[in-house]
Design brief:
The protein has no helices and 64 strands. By secondary structure, it is mainly beta. Its main location: membrane.
Length: 761
């Protein structure tokens, strides 16, 4: 801490202040420490850092700051707390004790995947940690073909050849080397605007420091893949837009059912309600029935208004029977957990009413429930593992690399609220439902497809499972191939039905659907799917605050957010950052796009280089003021723009984090300008799908003539039309932006817009 002064020209590590002050420049330091430093690990596992001041010539002793580090994986970098100060007036020394809670004091190991932000919203990333193999990051950089990033969430990576170390959370493998990019040690962190971040630290050496990894997760209604953004000094930065990063909403269902608010999955525990359940624990026996009345002759009552569902029994001469809960059919989905709570039991300790809570966990089959404990307020807790509590979908990695190093990512085709319906021959009675890298989403109707199916045939007597998710997509014979296996039995009663989907790159077929090709022996089903999602992932950069999606051609324009007046983002209770989009800020020095409010220190020069990589818009301001923590570095700001269709309180820049080691500020901005809406171009007509997407004009538009016009001298078209999409730019025909139909009058105003694309009918 330079403000404390120096020892022989070297900054002190700490000091006391003569007077209390908010401004460090007014600090009057005394009792400097840091001349000697020592770090110790006790046999109990405590880490202690000691700073000592200069020795007193008279006593040979010195003042000291003693800092004990305490493991708390929720705090990063950490929080410091003053404990006490011991004063020895005889020796004239003071020993000051502090406690520092930080995740860096924890042994690398799996961490809790649940996190709560300051507004009380809860998030659960455990859905990303259940994948059987690691996540492979999308990398469109110049080095992307020669290297692969492997990432995990909350749990260490499984075994990967050449990835070394214990509890590794991020690993980079190149053609001739590999690096540990950080270990699992810190729980996910939540920012005010709902952005989540995962930080893995203490990787392999990088110069005089160590590699680390930062993953920023944004809520999106897709199952995205992690995307490499940049290397910031020794920290690799990724962005991940996924539905798993959306807030968890507690919901309560009735009739022994509840629907998952995130994915729409329905959990039904009525199969557990057939009989009474009996659990013995020590001297007590517990009886309960899920969603029903106890049929056992226990805890009988003459009060007909009470329907008993849970009972506690103690046998023997001092035995008794106590009502431990009345009937309920309400099932709660809370933070990925199912629970049922029976209340209104007999009085306990003259204060409380007995109650019973059952937590239901997913397992391959239904086990016997287990008594956990009795709480101080007389609530009896049980755990019940059953297949009825399992989420009815499987999920697998949806991105991969081919032998040439190209990255492919099909995650934009994953559906959670509905499914893809394949195009079949005209008049066909069968319907094929398909999802990508995930089992089918729930369907309406009395005979839905099996919940584990990823492809399903409808139209026969009952739905047919055509295969389950097992492995992610792979590159075979010049195409991306996704295969589902272990469906229903084939007609030969030996093999099981399977589905193969061949994806081909077609940047023009934006609204395409899978097309049914064949069903060999009603056993092996094949589909073809030309789609931009099967093209190698590419990045795009423009220099005018605009950028296009290279796959769809959609133009993102953020120029309406620009202006020298700019915006503000808070980084502390009193501190602000002034920031402008694609322009310098009037509160900062000329040419500076962002700066600290109090000091006007530049955190990046303005530019208009907007980039697009795999659904993420990003603006990077570099070459700010020198970084005080490290020579040779300068401040930098990274602004990520995220789709948020509706305007709201987060429709402004939010500072997610400030890395003081690298002087990098990470901002997130939720705005409708980052959204890309694709108009559907197909409709169901009875038993078939009518798909008009082949009629979409990719250049210009269709020309139409009004034959009722008498003027034969005008040979130009009267109308320009496109199907399902806006008209493309045409030289000499200035149709309004976004118009799908426009008219060319003989005289008067040059162009009239006749309508924009909305939705098929």
């Amino acid at each position: 801490m330079p403000v404390c002064g120096t020892f022989d020209g070297k900054p002190a590590s700490g000091c006391e202040a003569e007077i209390q002050t908010e401004e460090l420049k007014n600090l009057k330091p005394e009792r400097l420490v840091g001349l000697e430093k020592s770090l110790q690990l006790s046999t109990e596992g405590f880490i202690t850092l000691t700073y000592k001041g200069p020795l007193s010539p008279a006593t040979g002793t010195a003042d000291a700051f003693i800092i004990r580090f305490v493991c708390n994986d929720d705090f990063y970098p950490g929080t410091t707390k003053f404990l006490h100060q011991d004063i020895d007036s005889g020796l004239g020394i003071r020993n000051t004790f502090f406690e520092f809670e930080t995740a860096l004091a924890c042994v690398p190991s799996p961490v809790d995947c649940q996190v709560t932000d300051v507004a009380g919203n809860e998030y659960d990333l455990s859905g990303l940690s259940r994948v059987r193999k690691p996540w492979t990051a999308v990398d469109t950089s110049a080095d992307g073909r020669k290297r692969t990033f492997y990432l995990s969430v909350c749990n260490p990576l499984p075994y990967i050849p050449r990835c070394h170390g214990s509890a590794v959370g991020s690993c980079l493998v190149s053609e001739d080397n590999s690096w540990n990019l950080g270990v699992v040690q810190i729980s996910p962190q939540a920012a005010e605007n709902g952005s989540l971040s995962i930080v893995y630290v203490n990787g392999d050496k990088c110069g005089n420091q160590r590699f680390s990894t930062r993953i920023t997760l944004e809520c999106a209604q897709t199952s995205g893949s992690p995307t490499f953004q940049l290397l910031d000094d020794c920290e690799y930065v990724f962005v991940w837009r996924t539905v798993e990063a959306c807030p968890v909403i507690r919901v309560e269902g009735d009739n022994c059912e509840v629907k998952d608010p995130r994915h729409g999955n329905l959990y039904d525990l009525k199969p557990l309600a057939v009989n009474d359940t009996v659990v013995s624990a020590g001297e007590y026996t517990y009886y309960f029935r899920v969603c029903g009345k106890l049929s056992s002759e226990v805890c009988s009552t003459n009060d007909r208004s009470k329907v008993i569902s849970s009972c506690q029994e103690k046998r023997g001469p001092e035995g008794f029977q106590k009502v431990a809960g009345l009937l309920t059919q309400k099932l709660t989905y809370e933070n990925g957990l199912l629970k049922m709570n029976y209340t209104g039991g007999d009085t306990c300790h003259k204060v409380y009413q007995r109650s019973t809570t059952i937590f239901f966990y997913c397992d391959r089959s239904t086990q016997r429930p287990v008594f956990l404990r009795e709480t101080s307020d007389c609530s009896y807790l049980f755990e019940w593992r059953t297949q009825h509590a399992c989420a009815p979908f499987d999920l697998t990695e949806c991105s991969f690399k081919d032998e040439a190093g190209n990255t492919f990512d099909l995650s934009s085709l994953v559906r959670y609220s509905d499914n893809w319906e394949a195009v079949t021959r005209t008049g066909a009675t069968e319907h094929y439902l398909i999802n990508v890298c995930k089992s089918l989403s729930p369907q309406a109707g009395s005979e839905p497809c099996p919940p584990e199916a990823a492809a399903c045939l409808l139209g026969s007597s009952k739905p047919v499972n055509l295969g389950r998710v097992r492995e992610g997509p792979q590159w075979r014979d010049g195409a991306t191939v996704l295969k589902y296996v272990d469906g229903d039995l084939c007609p030969d009663q030996i093999r099981k039905k399977s589905t193969t989907i061949r994806f081909t790159c077609s940047e023009s077929q934006v609204n395409s659907r899978p097309m049914f090709i064949s069903a060999v022996e009603d056993c092996e089903y094949t589909f073809s799917w030309p789609t931009p999602a099967a093209c190698p992932v590419r990045s795009n950069v423009h220099d005018n605050c605009q950028v296009t999606n290279p796959a769809t051609g959609h133009l993102f324009d953020l120029s309406s957010l620009s202006g020298r007046a700019g915006h503000t983002a808070a980084y502390s209770e009193k501190g602000l950052v002034y920031i402008s989009v694609c322009d310098d800020n009037e509160n900062c020095s000329p040419g500076v796009g962002a700066c600290f409010g109090q000091t006007r220190i530049s955190v990046g020069k303005a530019n208009k280089r907007l980039t697009y990589v795999d659904q993420v818009l990003q603006l990077v301001y570099e070459d700010g003021s020198p970084c005080p923590s490290k020579s040779g570095l300068t401040y930098k700001s990274v602004i990520s723009f995220v789709c948020r269709p509706e305007a709201g309180p987060t429709n402004r820049p939010m500072l997610i984090s400030l890395d003081k080691q690298t002087c990098t500020l990470f901002f997130s901005w939720h705005t409708p300008l980052a959204c890309e809406q694709v108009t559907e171009c197909s409709v169901r007509n009875g038993s078939s799908i009518i798909d008009l997407s082949p009629l979409i004009h990719r250049t210009g538009g269709y020309e139409a003539y009004d034959e009722s016009e008498d003027d034969t001298s005008d040979t130009g078209p009267d109308f320009y039309i496109n199907i399902c999409q806006p008209l493309n730019p045409m030289h000499g025909v200035p149709c309004p932006a976004g118009a799908a139909v426009c008219k060319v009058p003989v005289d008067g105003p040059p162009i009239v817009s006749m309508g924009n694309t909305r939705q098929k009918q």
